[in-house]
Amino acid sequence: MKKAVVLIAEDYQDLEVWYPILRLREAGWKVVPVGTDSQEKYKGKNGYPITVDCTVEEIKADDFDAVIVPGGWAPDYIRRNKAALELVAQMNSKKKIVAAICHAGWVLVSAGILKGRKCTSFSAIKDDMVNAGALWQDEEVIVDGNLVTSRTPDDLPAFCKAILAVAAH
User: Which pLDDT band holds residue 169 (cuts at 50, 70, 90)?
Assistant: First the structure.
């Protein structure tokens, strides 16, 4: 059984957390929502709550096949968590799936994994991504090896299809 971790912080974009969780579970994956601070429950931007299984400090990259970073305002909190950045960097170095949507590109920037990589994000953070060395493109989903990125909640179907396609190879 494949396993994914979804990084959770306050004010996550509701659909960008729940759509991948439900889609991957539907595909037979074990999906673990993981908090980036000591809270047990977090509230999405639109008010939808999620209860996490544990904190990011309690997990290891070796135990997962993918990490998913949602957007909303959560990435601004996630990128300040050293353990979350280490997890993303380790998953990337092990060629495991690193998937980020919308403002989650900020986490990739802070994890230092974008130099020379093709990716996309919400247009407002394009400059941050490019300044981190990314080869940014405005497309609904971009796959560069183990890296899967998308722009907005409208791109979620393509985002989840790409995650599953990368996992199948």
Answer: confident
Would the pTM of this model clear 0.85, i.e. be above it?
Answer: yes
Distance CA 97, CA 94 (A): 9
Under 8 Å CB-to-CB from 43, ≥6 apart: which residues? 10, 11, 49
CATH number, domain containing residue 80:
3.40.50.880
User: Would you name the residues annotated as active-site residues?
Assistant: 103
Tokens representing 49 are 């709550």
Q: What is the dihedral of CA 20, 21, 22, 24, to 10 degrees?
A: 70
Report the C-alpha gap between 50 and 57 in whole angstroms. 18
Residue 150: which domain range?
Answer: 3-168
Number of domains in the chain: 1
Task: Encode pLDDT of 42-89 as tens digits.
Answer: 999 999 999 999 999 999 999 999 999 999 999 999 999 999 999 999
The alpha carbons of the chain give a radius of gyration, in whole angstroms, of: 14
Count CB neighbours of 25 within 10 A.
12
Q: Tokens at residue 43, please? A: 């509230």
